[in-house]
Every structure is written in C-alpha cells, then in structure tokens.
Amino acid sequence: MRLITAARLARRELRGGLRGFRIFLACVILGVAAIAAVGTVRESIGQGLVQEGATLLGGDAEIEITYRFASEAERAWMDDTALRVSEVVDFRSMVTTSDGERGLTQVKAVDDAYPLLGKVTLDPPMPLSDALDGANGLPGLVMHPVLVDRLGLTPGDTVRLGSKAFHLSARLTGEPDNATAGFGLGPRTILRTSALDGSGLLAPGTLYSSDYRLDLPEGTDLAATQQAALTAFPDSGFRWRDARNGAPGVAEFVQRLGAFLVLVGLSGLAVGGVGISAALRAYLATKTETIATLRTLGADGQTIFLTYLIQTGALACLGLVIGLALGVGLPILLAPLIEARLPVPAAFAPYPGPMAEAALYSILTVLIFTLWPLARAQETRAASLFREALSGTRSLPRWPYLLATALLTTLLVTAAATFSGNLALTLWTAGGIAGALVILALAAWGIRHAARHLKPLSRGRPALGWALAAIGGPGTTAGPVVLSLGLGLSVLAAVGQIDSNLRGAIARDLPTRAPSYFFVDIQKDQMPLVRERLESDPAVSGIDSAPMLRGILSRINGTPATEVAPGHWVVEGDRGITYAATLPDRTRIVAGEWWDPDNQGKPQVSFAAEEAEEIGLKLGDELTLNILGRDITAEITSFREVDFSTAGMGFIMVMNPAAIEAAPHTFIATVYAKEEAEAQILRDVANRFPNITAIRVRDAIAQVSDLLAGLASATTWGAAATLLTGFLVLIGAAAADQSARTREAAILKTLGATRSNLLISLALRTAILGAAAGLVALAAGLTGGWAVSHFVMETEFSIAWPSALAIILGGALISLLAGLAFAWGPLRARPARILRARE
C-alpha cells in the first residue's frame, strides 16, 4: 500500500517537470557517458583485434623461434599442417648511406610467400616482389618514411646493411602485420632473406627471431593444432600465437589502459555523487511545504522516503539512458576520426558489456549518494518542516541506511575490481577517493570556521566581510564547492606531478647515468678490437661488456613457468642471459654464494633478487632455460642486486661458464662517452665492423618519453571529465544558493550597498572557495604524486611548481566563473519587492 501511494505521489511530483533536477541529471549523464565511452572504445579495439587477428598476425597461426631457424623436422611439420608457410626473420641493424649517415632500423627479412594475408603498400606504388627485386644489379629493400627522411634518402639511392649494398626501391607506407611488432627502437626495413647472404648480419649467435606464419585450412581447430605442435616438439622452445589473439601485447595494453581510465572515471562519478546529493538536498529544501502537508495528512516516513526515492530513481534512469546514448553514440559517430589515430583496427558498435558496466557503476553511485538526503527528509518532523528547517534532523541517518551505504560501496568496489581485473589498483583508487573526500570535507568545515573567525578582521572592507559571512554562515555552499572542485583538481594535480617527475627523471637524471650506446652482435673475435678503439678514446669514460645469449625460462622446479608466475614479465618471452666465471664488478650478492670459477659440474644460475622475490624463488630451486632449442636445467645458487633504473647492463640471469659458454653467442657492450664524441664513435665502429648494431640510448629515452606523454594525455582527459562534473556541481550549488544570495543582496542594498560592492563580494566569495579547494587539491595531489613516484616509479620527487600554481589558479577561476554565472539575479534584486514577497 505504501509503495502504491508513494508511486502515485511521485508521478504527480514528476508532472511539474525537471526543475531542481537539471544538475542531478547532468551529473548522472556525464558520469555514465564518460565510463561508457571509455568502455566502448576499449571493447571496439578488442573486437577489431579479434576480427582482424589473422591479418594482424600475418597468418592463422605463428610459430616464433628465438635466434635460430626451424629444424628440418619442424619445417616439415609446418608444411604438412598448413596450406602455405611464410618465413620472416626479424632483427635490428644499422643502415648506412653513401654519405656516411647511419640509422638504426628494425629489419624484416621475408620470403616470396610474404604476406600471406593483407597487403604491403609502397610509395611509389608497386608490388612488393618488384621492389625487393632491386635494380642495377643490387637487391632491393623498402624503408619506413621516417627513416628515409631522417637519412635524407630518396627512392633509387643505394644504402648498406652490414657489408652488402642494397637498392632503396620505395617508401614503406603500410604493413599489414605491424601491430605484432611491439616496442621497436628503429623504423622498419623490409628485404628478402636470401639477399642477406654475404652481409654478415646473421652470423652464429646474432640476435634475431624467425617467425613462421601458417595459412591453415578453413575450419582448423587452432587450440588442437597448437597442442599438436607442442606435443611434436616439446623441447624446441618456440612460442605459439594464433588468430584468436593476433596482437596480444596490444590487446593487453588496451585492456589495462581502459581499465585504468574507467577507474579514473569513477572519481568523476564520486564528484557527480556529491552533485547528486547536493542537488537532492536543495530540491528537498524546496519541498518543505509539500512534505509538511503530506505528513499532516497522515503520510509516514516510509511513504515520504519511497515517494522521493521513486522520483529520483525515475530521473536517474532517464539520465542513465541519455548517458549511455552519448557514451556509446559519440565513439561510433567519431569512429572515422578515432580509427585514423589508432595503430590497430577497431570495430565500433554498441556493445552490451561496457553499457552494463557503466549502468551498474552509475546505479550504485546514485543509490549511495541519495540514501542519506532521503533518510534525513524521512526523519524530519512536520513541525520543523513548517519552520523550513531540514537542519533540525540528526547529521547521520539511522543505522540501516548506514549499513546499506556500506554494502553498496562494497558492491561498487567489488564491481570495479572485477571489471578492471586489478584488485590492488582498484583498492588504491577507492581508498584515494574516500580519503580525498574525507580530507575535503574536513577542509570545508575548516574553511567555514576560519571564515567566521576572520570576519572581524574585515572591518572597513565590507565586500570582504560579506564574502566571509557567506562562507561561514548558515546555508553556505562551501561543502559542495570544496568537495566537487577539490576532487577533480586532486586527480589533475596528482597526474601533473607524476608526469612532471617521471619526465624529469628521464630527461634529467637518466641521461647522466645511462650509457651513450648499446653495441650488440659483437662477435667474440671482434670484442678485443672494439675495446681497443674505445679505451683509446679520452672521451670514453667507461665500457662494460658481457657475452649475450637469449633464452626462455620455461620451467620452475619442473612446473611451467607461466603457471608459477602468471603474467610476470620475466616468464613472458625470452630474456637476456650471460655467463661469468668471477663475480662481475659492482655486483652485490644478497643471498647464497658465487660458484667456483673452475666449476665444471651441474649448471648454476644467479638470479636478480627483486624479481626472484616477486616470483617466489628460493635458493636451491631449479630453473629450466630453453636456449637455441636446447633445455638447460640449472640450480639457483645466489641472488644478486640488479639496478635497471640506469639503463645500463643488467641481466636477470647469470650462469656459470661451463653451462652455456659452448653455445653460439655474441657479445654486448655499453659505452659511456661525452655526447659530442658519440657520432665519431659510431662511425668508427660501424665502418670497421658493419655487422655490429648500435642502439643510441638517447633515442630510446625519447621514444619512451613520447609513450609516457600519450599515457599522461589519456589520463588527463579522464581527469578533465571529472573536473567538468565538478564544474556542473558548482553551477548547481550556485543555482541552489541564488535565492538566499538574492535576499541577502536585497537586505544589503537596503543598508546602502552598491552593485559594485555586491559584485566584488560575490567574486571574492567564489574565488576564496575555489582557491581553498585548489590548495587542498594540491596537497592531495602532491601526496599522491609523491607516493606513486616513491613507491611505484622509485624515482626522486620534486614539486613541479608551474603545475602546482596552475591547480590553485584554476580552482579559483573555475569557482569564480560558476559563481558569476548566477550573479545577475542578486545584483538586479529590488529590495522592496524581494522583502515583501519573501516566500
């Protein structure tokens, strides 16, 4: 009966339109739209990767073998299983022009079957096979435009790779399988594998991978084929990928970034929740007479509660529908623009998953932030309502509502953790939001009390006195202003400080500690000659060198490594491995003992201590490493401290020489030199040893910096959505406060105040609140930035003052704009009419 009566009353209330609920609706719409948009883009990219998985991979399946070609038995199995097989060899090298200019390039050596799927596009247009045929008696190659322009080349020029000359036939403008390339330090060059004969680039021990793309018969069971390959060659150490996930690295990155942005979006929902709560309180305050009349006519508290719960629920559903339409519709509408900026395909369409996720978040947020205002209205007595005193109720609702709020909040956090797949990040985000809200609420209370105590000091400055009275007096909007604006600014402040400090560490600290070059693929007999050249140069301050092999950590104590440490970067892909008879310089053993230099017994390995702790390794554990197709089982005899932050030489695993010294391998060297000497060092080494590849660390740092810039930009856009929600809340607070400020202005005008004094007072009030919110947000942002820099990035932290000052000034400006938008009403108030017609 109560529900029927409440539904009838709610329907009658809704006939009056949306007056008083515009900000409520706007907050719901914006929060739903932001999360739905992020989810839709994420899901669209995921579906595009699934639909185009075979094209992105270059075939229905791929077998990747590290630093060797497939054996006769392996190739025979591929030929028997697939309709067509294409062999692709991938490695880094140096390209040299006729003028002596040099550049690092990622070489893709292909056969005549490449590409199995998709099409390579060139400028000028021509078939890839014609481009690779070459001209003037030289084999051909094609290069990415970035590399062509960097070296000042034009199609038709002659370049050298290793000790062999090639004809540059065209620019490489499109590569169908480029999404699987991952992080590359050099632009792409494509040539034929057969053209590498005599170049010296694929000598024994050279760092390369051979990828075999398989065109399988239609209807082939990919999972069964994968298992058949693993069964046929259990110890070959190959990696299998297929069209079910053609670009796993890209897919995982998109999922993680999307999940992170959704969590950032939850802070926007929290700000929207503040706006929802404030808007509902303001609306209920205008319904004083209505609620009082209903209570007088016999309506109990439950009926009042249900009436306005149904009303807010109906409006929330309306906002939910509009928000989903915007959040899903805008990405689909802007699909051509978004796809043009994406390196991978995307299939834009309405997907139920992101819509359900956004809807669930929003429903829970609305319930969390509407329960308390509704519960307070339910408990208010009719007599106090007639006196227009919603403030006469207790500050906290009864325990059932507190329990319901706690359960809903737990459900929201659980849902966020489930959808994001990262419990730790979700808990940190939720804790950060909750902590920020508590701090901001305490700050708002402190600002009100400070305003009361500072008011006597404003004598002789009436505008300032009126502003302080409005901030510290009854009906103040300090709470919603500081909460909504402060939370949005806190996210922006934290992002700004983290980005600034990380960039500072990369641009300022890393180059001073990092080497100038990595030289790789140094043959054993070349290493003494390379050291001789470098040690004789006074500009070179240091040289480190070590033998270099690559291997896959396949098993830990007999169990597949991916099962022991799922998702850990050490067991994903191949890792660098070296050997040493004696403890290397600047190496510190933290547990165990180094082996006897003359040890010829069982293979032993020293593991990086921090990574070992993350994986759960202990002394005496046995690791199975697949090196060049051969399994080697070694016992962990020590843990070492390894510092990767300097970008210098650091190996996760070091083995005793007897274990792997006989395997074909090359050397790697790091060179520390003055910047002005780097070019000459590169010329001398490359001219004498064309097979050696030089990786300039400054170029790698620049590429990492660009990647971080993209991540920071995406996060900033998410934080900006939070700030926009906060601006809407400010507008709602200003609108709800307009009636009180109009009456206040009428009284002040009666006492002789001028419009200019009133305008200055309004501007001071909003600017003070905004600046206070900015200061609190800055403190929260600095704390968050320091925590991430110290505990996650492990870098030094210093305050980025331009970003910090921008947060404070931005808070004051945003609050000022929102307040002045509603200043006209109080300024044009006519005292006689306002005071006579007081409702």
TrEMBL record:
<keyword id="KW-0472">Membrane</keyword>
<keyword id="KW-1003">Cell membrane</keyword>
<feature type="transmembrane region" description="Helical">
    <location>
        <begin position="425"/>
        <end position="445"/>
    </location>
</feature>
<feature type="transmembrane region" description="Helical">
    <location>
        <begin position="305"/>
        <end position="338"/>
    </location>
</feature>
<feature type="transmembrane region" description="Helical">
    <location>
        <begin position="358"/>
        <end position="378"/>
    </location>
</feature>
<feature type="transmembrane region" description="Helical">
    <location>
        <begin position="757"/>
        <end position="779"/>
    </location>
</feature>
<keyword id="KW-1133">Transmembrane helix</keyword>
<feature type="transmembrane region" description="Helical">
    <location>
        <begin position="21"/>
        <end position="41"/>
    </location>
</feature>
<keyword id="KW-0812">Transmembrane</keyword>
<feature type="transmembrane region" description="Helical">
    <location>
        <begin position="399"/>
        <end position="419"/>
    </location>
</feature>
<feature type="transmembrane region" description="Helical">
    <location>
        <begin position="799"/>
        <end position="824"/>
    </location>
</feature>
<feature type="domain" description="ABC3 transporter permease C-terminal">
    <location>
        <begin position="720"/>
        <end position="827"/>
    </location>
</feature>
<protein>
    <submittedName>
        <fullName>FtsX-like permease family protein</fullName>
    </submittedName>
</protein>
<feature type="domain" description="ABC3 transporter permease C-terminal">
    <location>
        <begin position="264"/>
        <end position="376"/>
    </location>
</feature>
<dbReference type="InterPro" id="IPR038766">
    <property type="entry name" value="Membrane_comp_ABC_pdt"/>
</dbReference>
<feature type="transmembrane region" description="Helical">
    <location>
        <begin position="717"/>
        <end position="736"/>
    </location>
</feature>
<dbReference type="GO" id="GO:0005886">
    <property type="term" value="C:plasma membrane"/>
</dbReference>
<feature type="transmembrane region" description="Helical">
    <location>
        <begin position="466"/>
        <end position="495"/>
    </location>
</feature>
<dbReference type="InterPro" id="IPR003838">
    <property type="entry name" value="ABC3_permease_C"/>
</dbReference>
<dbReference type="Pfam" id="PF02687">
    <property type="entry name" value="FtsX"/>
</dbReference>
<feature type="transmembrane region" description="Helical">
    <location>
        <begin position="257"/>
        <end position="284"/>
    </location>
</feature>
